[in-house]
Protein backbone atom coordinates (compact mmCIF):
# COMPACT_ATOMS: atom_id res chain seq x y z
CA UNK A 1 0.00 0.00 0.00
CA UNK A 2 2.86 2.32 0.70
CA UNK A 3 4.20 1.81 -2.82
CA UNK A 4 0.79 2.61 -4.28
CA UNK A 5 0.57 5.87 -2.35
CA UNK A 6 4.07 6.94 -3.37
CA UNK A 7 3.28 6.07 -6.99
CA UNK A 8 0.09 8.14 -6.90
CA UNK A 9 1.92 11.12 -5.42
CA UNK A 10 4.63 10.84 -8.06
CA UNK A 11 2.03 10.66 -10.83
CA UNK A 12 0.26 13.75 -9.51
CA UNK A 13 3.56 15.66 -9.40
CA UNK A 14 4.43 14.66 -12.96
CA UNK A 15 0.95 15.62 -14.16
CA UNK A 16 1.31 19.06 -12.65
CA UNK A 17 4.73 19.55 -14.22
CA UNK A 18 3.94 18.35 -17.74
CA UNK A 19 2.46 21.69 -18.93
CA UNK A 20 4.99 24.06 -17.38
CA UNK A 21 6.82 26.72 -19.34
CA UNK A 22 10.54 27.29 -19.29
CA UNK A 23 12.32 30.55 -18.60
CA UNK A 24 14.17 32.12 -21.56
CA UNK A 25 16.32 35.16 -20.74
CA UNK A 26 16.14 38.13 -23.12
CA UNK A 27 18.77 40.63 -21.97
CA UNK A 28 18.82 44.13 -23.43
CA UNK A 29 21.77 45.15 -25.59
CA UNK A 30 21.82 48.98 -25.59
CA UNK A 31 24.76 49.21 -28.01
CA UNK A 32 23.10 46.91 -30.55
CA UNK A 33 19.72 48.66 -30.35
CA UNK A 34 21.37 52.07 -30.72
CA UNK A 35 23.28 50.89 -33.78
CA UNK A 36 20.08 49.44 -35.26
CA UNK A 37 18.30 52.76 -34.71
CA UNK A 38 21.08 54.73 -36.41
CA UNK A 39 20.81 52.42 -39.43
CA UNK A 40 17.07 52.99 -39.87
CA UNK A 41 15.67 54.62 -43.03
CA UNK A 42 12.24 55.35 -44.45
CA UNK A 43 12.54 52.12 -46.43
CA UNK A 44 12.13 50.22 -43.17
CA UNK A 45 8.51 51.42 -43.06
CA UNK A 46 7.74 49.10 -45.96
CA UNK A 47 5.69 51.64 -47.95
CA UNK A 48 7.37 50.91 -51.27
CA UNK A 49 8.41 53.63 -53.71
CA UNK A 50 7.27 57.08 -52.57
CA UNK A 51 8.15 60.05 -54.78
CA UNK A 52 7.31 62.81 -52.32
CA UNK A 53 6.85 62.40 -48.59
CA UNK A 54 3.91 64.43 -47.34
CA UNK A 55 2.07 64.30 -44.06
CA UNK A 56 -0.02 61.19 -44.95
CA UNK A 57 3.04 59.19 -46.06
CA UNK A 58 5.14 60.32 -43.10
CA UNK A 59 2.29 59.40 -40.76
CA UNK A 60 2.11 55.90 -42.24
CA UNK A 61 5.86 55.52 -41.73
CA UNK A 62 5.68 56.80 -38.15
CA UNK A 63 2.93 54.33 -37.26
CA UNK A 64 5.28 51.53 -38.33
CA UNK A 65 8.51 52.88 -36.87
CA UNK A 66 7.84 55.05 -33.82
CA UNK A 67 8.68 53.30 -30.52
CA UNK A 68 5.65 54.82 -28.76
CA UNK A 69 3.39 52.58 -30.85
CA UNK A 70 5.33 49.45 -29.92
CA UNK A 71 5.29 50.51 -26.26
CA UNK A 72 1.49 50.87 -26.32
CA UNK A 73 1.17 47.48 -27.98
CA UNK A 74 3.39 45.88 -25.34
CA UNK A 75 1.32 47.43 -22.57
CA UNK A 76 -1.86 46.10 -24.20
CA UNK A 77 -0.36 42.61 -24.39
CA UNK A 78 0.45 42.87 -20.68
CA UNK A 79 -3.17 43.83 -20.00
CA UNK A 80 -4.31 40.84 -22.06
CA UNK A 81 -2.09 38.61 -19.93
CA UNK A 82 -3.85 40.03 -16.86
CA UNK A 83 -7.14 38.84 -18.38
CA UNK A 84 -5.73 35.32 -18.42
CA UNK A 85 -4.66 35.67 -14.79
CA UNK A 86 -8.12 36.91 -13.78
CA UNK A 87 -9.79 33.93 -15.40
CA UNK A 88 -7.63 31.30 -13.70
CA UNK A 89 -9.31 28.95 -11.29
CA UNK A 90 -7.49 28.03 -8.06
CA UNK A 91 -5.58 24.76 -8.26
CA UNK A 92 -6.44 21.88 -5.94
CA UNK A 93 -3.88 20.94 -3.32
CA UNK A 94 -2.85 17.35 -2.79
CA UNK A 95 -1.21 16.24 0.44
CA UNK A 96 -0.04 13.01 1.93
CA UNK A 97 1.63 11.73 5.07
CA UNK A 98 2.82 8.52 6.63
CA UNK A 99 3.10 7.31 10.21
CA UNK A 100 4.99 4.35 11.67
CA UNK A 101 3.70 2.79 14.84
CA UNK A 102 6.17 1.24 17.26
CA UNK A 103 3.57 -1.26 18.43
CA UNK A 104 1.99 -3.11 15.55
CA UNK A 105 0.49 -6.08 17.47
CA UNK A 106 0.91 -8.33 14.47
CA UNK A 107 -0.53 -5.90 11.85
CA UNK A 108 1.11 -3.37 9.58
CA UNK A 109 2.88 -0.63 11.54
CA UNK A 110 2.10 1.98 8.87
CA UNK A 111 -0.65 4.59 8.63
CA UNK A 112 -0.74 6.34 5.25
CA UNK A 113 -3.01 9.30 4.42
CA UNK A 114 -3.85 11.05 1.17
CA UNK A 115 -5.93 14.23 0.91
CA UNK A 116 -7.06 16.68 -1.77
CA UNK A 117 -8.10 20.26 -0.99
CA UNK A 118 -10.46 21.62 -3.70
CA UNK A 119 -11.06 25.40 -3.35
CA UNK A 120 -14.40 26.64 -4.67
CA UNK A 121 -15.08 30.34 -5.32
CA UNK A 122 -18.59 31.62 -4.74
CA UNK A 123 -20.87 34.52 -5.73
CA UNK A 124 -19.25 35.27 -9.10
CA UNK A 125 -15.85 36.45 -7.86
CA UNK A 126 -14.05 34.98 -10.87
CA UNK A 127 -16.51 36.58 -13.28
CA UNK A 128 -16.05 39.98 -11.59
CA UNK A 129 -12.25 39.66 -11.86
CA UNK A 130 -12.60 38.85 -15.54
CA UNK A 131 -14.86 41.88 -16.07
CA UNK A 132 -12.35 44.15 -14.36
CA UNK A 133 -9.39 42.79 -16.32
CA UNK A 134 -11.33 42.98 -19.59
CA UNK A 135 -12.18 46.64 -18.98
CA UNK A 136 -8.56 47.46 -18.17
CA UNK A 137 -7.46 45.58 -21.29
CA UNK A 138 -9.92 47.60 -23.38
CA UNK A 139 -8.47 50.80 -21.93
CA UNK A 140 -4.94 49.62 -22.77
CA UNK A 141 -6.06 48.84 -26.32
CA UNK A 142 -7.37 52.39 -26.66
CA UNK A 143 -3.91 53.56 -25.62
CA UNK A 144 -2.62 52.16 -28.92
CA UNK A 145 -4.96 54.42 -30.87
CA UNK A 146 -4.15 57.30 -28.52
CA UNK A 147 -0.43 56.78 -29.11
CA UNK A 148 -1.06 56.71 -32.86
CA UNK A 149 -2.92 60.01 -32.73
CA UNK A 150 -0.23 61.62 -30.57
CA UNK A 151 2.42 60.48 -33.05
CA UNK A 152 0.43 62.04 -35.89
CA UNK A 153 -0.17 65.24 -33.91
CA UNK A 154 3.52 65.72 -33.08
CA UNK A 155 4.51 64.84 -36.63
CA UNK A 156 2.17 67.46 -38.10
CA UNK A 157 3.44 70.06 -35.64
CA UNK A 158 7.07 69.39 -36.55
CA UNK A 159 6.41 69.31 -40.27
CA UNK A 160 4.56 72.62 -39.92
CA UNK A 161 7.53 74.04 -37.99
CA UNK A 162 9.90 73.07 -40.80
CA UNK A 163 7.51 74.57 -43.38
CA UNK A 164 7.29 77.80 -41.38
CA UNK A 165 11.07 78.07 -41.13
CA UNK A 166 11.51 77.57 -44.88
CA UNK A 167 8.79 80.11 -45.74
CA UNK A 168 10.13 82.67 -43.29
CA UNK A 169 13.68 82.13 -44.56
CA UNK A 170 12.53 82.82 -48.13
CA UNK A 171 10.71 85.94 -46.93
CA UNK A 172 13.81 87.13 -45.08
CA UNK A 173 15.97 86.44 -48.13
CA UNK A 174 13.78 88.71 -50.28
CA UNK A 175 13.82 91.35 -47.54
CA UNK A 176 17.62 91.19 -47.29
CA UNK A 177 17.97 91.67 -51.06
CA UNK A 178 15.71 94.72 -50.99
CA UNK A 179 17.45 96.21 -47.96
CA UNK A 180 20.84 95.66 -49.59
CA UNK A 181 19.61 97.57 -52.63
CA UNK A 182 18.40 100.40 -50.39
CA UNK A 183 21.79 100.55 -48.64
CA UNK A 184 23.57 100.71 -51.99
CA UNK A 185 21.26 103.53 -53.18
CA UNK A 186 21.77 105.51 -49.95
CA UNK A 187 25.54 105.05 -50.15
CA UNK A 188 25.46 106.55 -53.65
CA UNK A 189 23.32 109.46 -52.45
CA UNK A 190 25.57 110.04 -49.45
CA UNK A 191 28.57 110.21 -51.76
CA UNK A 192 26.70 112.82 -53.81
CA UNK A 193 25.74 114.75 -50.67
CA UNK A 194 22.02 114.17 -51.15
CA UNK A 195 21.34 112.39 -47.79
CA UNK A 196 22.77 112.38 -44.32
CA UNK A 197 24.66 109.59 -42.63
CA UNK A 198 21.81 108.86 -40.23
CA UNK A 199 19.55 107.44 -42.93
CA UNK A 200 22.36 105.21 -44.20
CA UNK A 201 23.25 104.00 -40.71
CA UNK A 202 19.63 103.11 -40.01
CA UNK A 203 19.35 101.20 -43.32
CA UNK A 204 22.54 99.30 -42.57
CA UNK A 205 21.26 98.41 -39.10
CA UNK A 206 18.01 97.06 -40.55
CA UNK A 207 19.97 95.03 -43.11
CA UNK A 208 22.14 93.55 -40.36
CA UNK A 209 19.06 92.58 -38.32
CA UNK A 210 17.55 90.87 -41.34
CA UNK A 211 20.72 88.92 -42.05
CA UNK A 212 20.97 87.92 -38.39
CA UNK A 213 17.38 86.66 -38.55
CA UNK A 214 18.32 84.64 -41.64
CA UNK A 215 21.15 82.98 -39.76
CA UNK A 216 18.82 82.17 -36.89
CA UNK A 217 16.30 80.56 -39.25
CA UNK A 218 19.08 78.51 -40.87
CA UNK A 219 20.08 77.13 -37.46
CA UNK A 220 16.46 76.40 -36.58
CA UNK A 221 15.98 74.53 -39.87
CA UNK A 222 18.57 71.90 -38.93
CA UNK A 223 16.97 71.47 -35.50
CA UNK A 224 13.47 71.20 -36.99
CA UNK A 225 14.69 68.65 -39.53
CA UNK A 226 16.10 66.48 -36.73
CA UNK A 227 12.90 66.88 -34.70
CA UNK A 228 10.84 65.75 -37.71
CA UNK A 229 12.97 62.63 -38.06
CA UNK A 230 12.59 61.88 -34.34
CA UNK A 231 8.82 62.28 -34.73
CA UNK A 232 8.87 59.45 -37.27
CA UNK A 233 11.18 57.25 -35.21
CA UNK A 234 14.28 57.79 -37.37
CA UNK A 235 17.73 59.30 -36.92
CA UNK A 236 18.23 62.76 -38.42
CA UNK A 237 20.43 61.40 -41.21
CA UNK A 238 17.54 59.31 -42.53
CA UNK A 239 15.72 62.43 -43.84
CA UNK A 240 18.69 63.96 -45.65
CA UNK A 241 17.78 64.64 -49.31
CA UNK A 242 14.27 63.22 -48.80
CA UNK A 243 11.76 65.24 -50.87
CA UNK A 244 9.09 66.64 -48.56
CA UNK A 245 5.64 67.95 -49.42
CA UNK A 246 3.95 70.74 -47.43
CA UNK A 247 0.74 70.76 -49.48
CA UNK A 248 -1.71 70.61 -46.51
CA UNK A 249 -0.26 73.83 -45.11
CA UNK A 250 -1.02 75.73 -48.32
CA UNK A 251 -4.78 75.28 -47.74
CA UNK A 252 -6.65 78.14 -46.10
CA UNK A 253 -10.08 76.49 -46.01
CA UNK A 254 -11.19 73.18 -44.56
CA UNK A 255 -14.34 71.12 -44.50
CA UNK A 256 -15.57 71.18 -40.94
CA UNK A 257 -17.67 68.19 -39.84
CA UNK A 258 -21.39 68.94 -39.34
CA UNK A 259 -22.74 69.43 -35.84
CA UNK A 260 -23.84 65.80 -35.56
CA UNK A 261 -20.37 64.78 -36.68
CA UNK A 262 -18.87 66.99 -34.01
CA UNK A 263 -21.09 65.36 -31.39
CA UNK A 264 -20.01 61.95 -32.65
CA UNK A 265 -16.37 63.05 -32.42
CA UNK A 266 -17.03 64.04 -28.82
CA UNK A 267 -18.36 60.59 -27.97
CA UNK A 268 -15.56 58.87 -29.91
CA UNK A 269 -12.73 60.84 -28.35
CA UNK A 270 -10.20 58.30 -27.20
CA UNK A 271 -9.93 59.84 -23.76
CA UNK A 272 -13.72 59.62 -23.37
CA UNK A 273 -13.78 55.96 -24.39
CA UNK A 274 -10.84 55.17 -22.12
CA UNK A 275 -12.53 56.92 -19.20
CA UNK A 276 -15.65 54.81 -19.79
CA UNK A 277 -13.50 51.67 -19.73
CA UNK A 278 -11.96 52.86 -16.48
CA UNK A 279 -15.43 53.31 -14.99
CA UNK A 280 -16.37 49.79 -16.07
CA UNK A 281 -13.24 48.48 -14.35
CA UNK A 282 -14.19 50.36 -11.16
CA UNK A 283 -17.71 48.94 -11.38
CA UNK A 284 -16.33 45.41 -11.69
CA UNK A 285 -13.99 45.97 -8.76
CA UNK A 286 -16.92 47.03 -6.57
CA UNK A 287 -18.83 43.95 -7.67
CA UNK A 288 -15.82 41.82 -6.70
CA UNK A 289 -15.44 43.41 -3.26
CA UNK A 290 -19.15 42.99 -2.54
CA UNK A 291 -18.89 39.31 -3.53
CA UNK A 292 -16.01 38.88 -1.10
CA UNK A 293 -18.46 39.32 1.78
CA UNK A 294 -19.45 35.74 1.09
CA UNK A 295 -16.63 33.33 1.92
CA UNK A 296 -15.20 30.77 -0.43
CA UNK A 297 -14.97 27.23 0.85
CA UNK A 298 -12.83 24.19 0.24
CA UNK A 299 -13.81 20.57 -0.08
CA UNK A 300 -11.23 18.18 1.32
CA UNK A 301 -11.92 14.52 0.48
CA UNK A 302 -9.33 12.18 1.97
CA UNK A 303 -8.29 8.58 2.29
CA UNK A 304 -6.11 6.85 4.85
CA UNK A 305 -4.85 3.34 5.20
CA UNK A 306 -4.54 2.88 8.92
CA UNK A 307 -2.71 -0.35 9.79
CA UNK A 308 -4.71 -2.36 7.31
CA UNK A 309 -7.98 -0.45 7.75
CA UNK A 310 -9.34 1.67 4.85
CA UNK A 311 -10.75 5.00 6.06
CA UNK A 312 -12.49 7.66 3.94
CA UNK A 313 -13.20 11.24 4.98
CA UNK A 314 -14.72 14.48 3.64
CA UNK A 315 -13.84 17.84 5.12
CA UNK A 316 -15.19 21.36 4.50
CA UNK A 317 -13.46 24.62 5.45
CA UNK A 318 -14.38 28.29 5.06
CA UNK A 319 -13.57 31.64 6.59
CA UNK A 320 -16.20 32.92 8.99
CA UNK A 321 -16.99 36.61 8.45
CA UNK A 322 -17.21 37.40 12.13
CA UNK A 323 -14.76 40.27 12.65
CA UNK A 324 -15.42 42.08 9.36
CA UNK A 325 -17.54 41.73 6.26
CA UNK A 326 -15.06 43.38 3.88
CA UNK A 327 -16.49 46.82 4.68
CA UNK A 328 -13.19 48.64 4.08
CA UNK A 329 -12.45 47.35 0.57
CA UNK A 330 -16.12 47.80 -0.39
CA UNK A 331 -16.02 51.43 0.74
CA UNK A 332 -12.78 51.99 -1.17
CA UNK A 333 -14.18 50.42 -4.34
CA UNK A 334 -17.41 52.43 -4.08
CA UNK A 335 -15.43 55.65 -3.59
CA UNK A 336 -13.16 54.78 -6.51
CA UNK A 337 -16.21 54.25 -8.71
CA UNK A 338 -17.43 57.72 -7.74
CA UNK A 339 -13.99 59.14 -8.55
CA UNK A 340 -14.11 57.53 -12.00
CA UNK A 341 -17.59 58.93 -12.60
CA UNK A 342 -16.55 62.46 -11.63
CA UNK A 343 -13.39 62.17 -13.72
CA UNK A 344 -15.53 61.23 -16.71
CA UNK A 345 -17.83 64.22 -16.17
CA UNK A 346 -14.88 66.56 -15.81
CA UNK A 347 -13.18 65.12 -18.89
CA UNK A 348 -16.34 65.41 -20.97
CA UNK A 349 -16.78 69.05 -19.97
CA UNK A 350 -13.12 69.76 -20.74
CA UNK A 351 -13.40 68.13 -24.17
CA UNK A 352 -16.52 70.14 -25.04
CA UNK A 353 -14.73 73.32 -23.99
CA UNK A 354 -11.62 72.34 -25.92
CA UNK A 355 -13.58 71.76 -29.11
CA UNK A 356 -15.44 75.07 -28.78
CA UNK A 357 -12.24 76.97 -28.04
CA UNK A 358 -10.36 75.34 -30.93
CA UNK A 359 -13.16 76.14 -33.38
CA UNK A 360 -13.27 79.76 -32.20
CA UNK A 361 -9.47 79.98 -32.60
CA UNK A 362 -9.66 78.70 -36.17
CA UNK A 363 -12.42 81.14 -37.08
CA UNK A 364 -10.51 84.04 -35.50
CA UNK A 365 -7.39 83.06 -37.45
CA UNK A 366 -9.41 83.20 -40.67
CA UNK A 367 -10.43 86.76 -39.86
CA UNK A 368 -6.78 87.72 -39.25
CA UNK A 369 -5.79 86.21 -42.61
CA UNK A 370 -8.51 88.17 -44.40
CA UNK A 371 -7.37 91.42 -42.80
CA UNK A 372 -3.69 90.76 -43.60
CA UNK A 373 -4.53 89.97 -47.22
CA UNK A 374 -6.56 93.15 -47.51
CA UNK A 375 -3.55 95.16 -46.32
CA UNK A 376 -1.26 93.26 -48.70
CA UNK A 377 -3.63 93.97 -51.59
CA UNK A 378 -3.56 97.67 -50.73
CA UNK A 379 0.24 97.59 -50.63
CA UNK A 380 0.28 95.76 -53.99
CA UNK A 381 -1.83 98.57 -55.47
CA UNK A 382 0.55 101.16 -54.02
CA UNK A 383 3.53 99.32 -55.53
CA UNK A 384 1.79 99.24 -58.91
CA UNK A 385 1.21 102.98 -58.65
CA UNK A 386 4.85 103.60 -57.67
CA UNK A 387 5.98 101.41 -60.59
CA UNK A 388 3.90 103.52 -62.99
CA UNK A 389 5.41 106.69 -61.54
CA UNK A 390 8.89 105.19 -61.84
CA UNK A 391 8.29 104.24 -65.46
CA UNK A 392 7.08 107.80 -66.14
CA UNK A 393 10.06 109.35 -64.37
CA UNK A 394 8.11 110.75 -61.41
CA UNK A 395 9.60 108.35 -58.82
CA UNK A 396 13.16 107.22 -58.31
CA UNK A 397 14.66 103.79 -57.70
CA UNK A 398 14.75 104.29 -53.91
CA UNK A 399 11.00 104.96 -53.75
CA UNK A 400 10.29 101.88 -55.91
CA UNK A 401 12.52 99.64 -53.80
CA UNK A 402 10.98 101.00 -50.60
CA UNK A 403 7.51 100.18 -51.93
CA UNK A 404 8.69 96.66 -52.78
CA UNK A 405 10.04 96.32 -49.24
CA UNK A 406 6.72 97.43 -47.78
CA UNK A 407 4.89 94.86 -49.91
CA UNK A 408 7.30 92.18 -48.71
CA UNK A 409 6.50 93.16 -45.11
CA UNK A 410 2.78 92.94 -45.84
CA UNK A 411 3.25 89.49 -47.37
CA UNK A 412 5.23 88.48 -44.29
CA UNK A 413 2.22 89.47 -42.18
CA UNK A 414 0.01 87.28 -44.40
CA UNK A 415 2.43 84.39 -43.93
CA UNK A 416 2.42 84.88 -40.16
CA UNK A 417 -1.40 84.86 -40.15
CA UNK A 418 -1.51 81.72 -42.29
CA UNK A 419 0.94 79.94 -39.99
CA UNK A 420 -1.10 80.97 -36.96
CA UNK A 421 -4.18 79.55 -38.68
CA UNK A 422 -2.37 76.25 -39.26
CA UNK A 423 -1.51 76.07 -35.57
CA UNK A 424 -5.18 76.73 -34.79
CA UNK A 425 -6.16 73.99 -37.23
CA UNK A 426 -3.82 71.60 -35.43
CA UNK A 427 -5.60 72.34 -32.15
CA UNK A 428 -8.97 71.82 -33.82
CA UNK A 429 -7.87 68.47 -35.27
CA UNK A 430 -6.60 67.45 -31.86
CA UNK A 431 -9.95 68.42 -30.34
CA UNK A 432 -11.91 66.15 -32.69
CA UNK A 433 -9.04 63.66 -33.15
CA UNK A 434 -9.37 63.39 -36.89
CA UNK A 435 -7.59 65.08 -39.83
CA UNK A 436 -9.45 68.09 -41.24
CA UNK A 437 -7.05 69.01 -44.04
CA UNK A 438 -8.27 66.37 -46.47
CA UNK A 439 -5.84 63.72 -45.28
CA UNK A 440 -7.08 60.17 -44.91
CA UNK A 441 -8.05 59.16 -41.36
CA UNK A 442 -5.58 57.16 -39.36
CA UNK A 443 -5.62 53.45 -40.28
CA UNK A 444 -6.73 50.80 -37.84
CA UNK A 445 -3.95 49.48 -35.70
CA UNK A 446 -2.94 45.88 -36.57
CA UNK A 447 -4.38 44.59 -33.27
CA UNK A 448 -7.73 46.31 -33.85
CA UNK A 449 -10.56 44.70 -35.74
CA UNK A 450 -11.54 46.60 -38.93
Structure, described:
This protein is an alpha+beta fold. The chain has one domain: Up-down Bundle (Outer membrane efflux proteins (OEP)), CATH 1.20.1600. It has helices at 2-17, 30-38, 55-65, 67-87, 125-191, 197-232, 259-268, 270-291, 327-392, 397-432; strands spanning 93-100, 110-120, 297-306, 309-318. A 4-stranded antiparallel β-sheet has the order 1-2-3-4, with helices on one face. Strand 3 and strand 4 (309-318) form a beta hairpin. Helix 4 (67-87) packs antiparallel against helix 5, helix 8 (270-291) runs antiparallel to helix 9 (327-392) and helix 9 (327-392) runs antiparallel to helix 10. The radius of gyration is 37 Å and the shape is elongated.
Brief characterization of the structure:
With 450 residues, the protein is an alpha+beta fold. 65% of the residues lie in helices and 9% in strands. The protein starts with a helix and ends in an 18-residue tail after the last helix.
What spatial order of strands do you see in the largest sheet? 1-2-3-4
CATH superfamily: Outer membrane efflux proteins (OEP)
- Provide the number of structural domains: 1
In N-to-C order, the SSE pattern is HHHHEEHHHHEEHH
Oligomer: single chain
Structural class: alpha+beta
Q: What spatial form do the alpha-carbon principal axes imply?
A: elongated
CATH architectural name: Up-down Bundle
Estimate percent helicity: 55-70%
Note the total helix count.
10
What is the CATH T-level topology?
Answer: Outer membrane efflux proteins (OEP)
What value does the average pLDDT take? 88
Low-confidence stretches: none
By CATH reckoning, the class would read Mainly Alpha
Beta-strand fraction estimate? 5-15%
The major beta sheet can be summarized as: 4 strands, antiparallel
